[in-house]
Amino acid sequence: MPSLSLGYIAAYLMKYNKDIKIKIINHNVYKTINSFKPDLVGISSVSQNYNIAKKVSKICKKYKIPVIIGGQHISALPESLSKEMDIGIMREGEETFLDIANTFQKHGWDMEKIRKIKGIAYHSSKSIALTSARDLIEPLDKIPHPSYELLKIQKGGMFPVFSSRGCPYNCTFCSSTRFWNSVRFFSAEYVIREIKKILKEYKPNLISFQDDLFIADKKRLKKIVELIRKEGIEKKVSFHVSCRSNLINDEIVRILKRMNVTNIGMGLESGCDKTLQWLKGNVSIKDNQKAVSIISKYNINVNATFIIGAPYESKKDIMKTYKFIKNSNINLFQVYGLVPYPGTPIWEYALKKNLVSKDMDWEKLAQDFTHNPQKKINLSEKVSKKELYNFYKKFERLRKQKYAKTLISNALNNPSQILPYIKRKIWEHRAI
To answer: How far apart, in whole angstroms, are the C-alpha atoms of residue 176 and residue 198?
Structure first.
């Protein structure tokens, strides 16, 4: 997936400082530094990729280039700012990076001046120091659409979009809600302008909203759908959105159907009420069952994620999740092991158990089991790491069966559209 966060920062910099030249890369670091010769390097990183961020920082320091790190990891753990990194940006990065760039442009890399910038972490004589927090950008429409051209997104296929920042809920495992600390929305008009621009320049067959909770503001949702239909956009492209099961009802799904949503993603998390309450708080199995039933009724694919390996979850509890998926109308799903991301209550639990630290191998926080399962942290007090991995493989077999069944069934219902359908489903599957 392209890093839209960097796309937003690049667009913001170029809008408010016309003299800045930017290149966004994810490979060929040495080659690009030699050819582009940047004055500053900014890196965005989540926790599981922080080892990579540190390696890139070391490369930059060989060329004596100041390094600014941003993203969820450093915002949650500023004390993990490595010696190769000069500045950490806390949370939202557009205005902070612009201040850093403007200060550098006027004064060079003058730390006395840079330390006056709000919303950063930096190395002091004995520890990591933080400046005062920066206010969030209001209104969000002040931020221009991401610089897609710098992200080198291919034409056709699936295209990612954000229409909001943050989530009103506080699931125990979620780092995103802690990163944003509030919920803000781009206006419906802003979203439609972006969609029209994407359709014109990239001609996707699918647009996937990456919002934590696309339906959080029902009034705005209705306005977006109204404008989509006014422009005839629903006839040109299909959409994926993310919802929460306790917010799903007939009215919401009818609204989403009108904008040609073909796939609704939900974090259902568990088929065991006890585990579900521990992970999410105010959602029940009945909520999950009802949501799946309503969405299926409108012939929209249900795309769900589940978590196994909670501390007090037994083998019997995990099997309840397996049976829930097997006996439901869920079309696509993914199962992950519980990960203790910094800043979350799960992280605090793992700290007390000495399973994580502020200086650790960050690859251990990879979400899926297939990425070096031996490294994966096991938070369970009732299921061994080996047993958890065997459960994952069992879920994987079921996932592939469900996916194949959905692919064949839906395609056969539209014989003339089999090839276009398969191509679209491949893109949808990649968007999970």
So the answer is: 26
Nearest-5° angle of CA 213, CA 305, CA 224? 25
Sign of the four-CA dihedral 11, 12, 18, 21:
negative
Return d(Cα 8, Cα 115) in angstroms, integer.
Answer: 24
Q: Rounded to whole angstroms, what are the CA distances from 423 to 155, 156, 213, 330?
A: 14, 11, 27, 20
Query: Is 3.20.20.70 the CATH classification of the domain at 154-430?
Result: yes
Q: Do domains 4-130 and 154-430 have the same CATH topology?
A: no
74 neighbors 121 (Cβ within 8 angstroms): yes
What CA dihedral angle connects 351, 212, 278 and 290, to 10 degrees? -160
Spatial separation of the C-alpha atoms in residues 343 and 337, rounded to whole Å = 18
The answer on pLDDT for 429 being more than 60 is no
Domain map (residue ranges) of the chain: 4-130, 154-430
Residue 432 pLDDT level (bands cut at 50, 70, 90)? very low
**Partners of 390 in the β-ladder:** none
Per-residue pLDDT of 114-155, as tens digits, reads 999 999 999 998 899 999 999 999 999 999 999 999 998 888
* Of residues 267, 213, 209, 266, the one with CA closest to residue 237: 209
306, 343 contact by CB (below 8 A): no
d(CA 89, CA 104) in angstroms, rounded, equals: 15
Measuring CA to CA, which residue among 241, 246, 225 is closest to residue 302? 241
Q: Would you say residue 92 has pLDDT above 80? A: yes
**Could you count the other beta carbons within 10 Å of the beta carbon of residue 52?**
14
Q: What are phi and psi of 304, to 5 degrees?
A: -120, 155
With both helix axes pointing from N to C terminus, report the angle between 273-280 and 315-326 in degrees, rounded to the nearest 10: 90
Rounded CA-CA distance 231/99 in Å is 38
Q: Residues, the chain, total?
A: 432
| Half-sphere CA count of 101, side-chain side, radius 13 A | 23
pTM flag (> 0.85) = yes
Taking only the tens place, the pLDDT of each residue in 49-61 is: 999 999 999 999 9
CATH 3.40.50.2300 is the classification of domain 4-130 = no
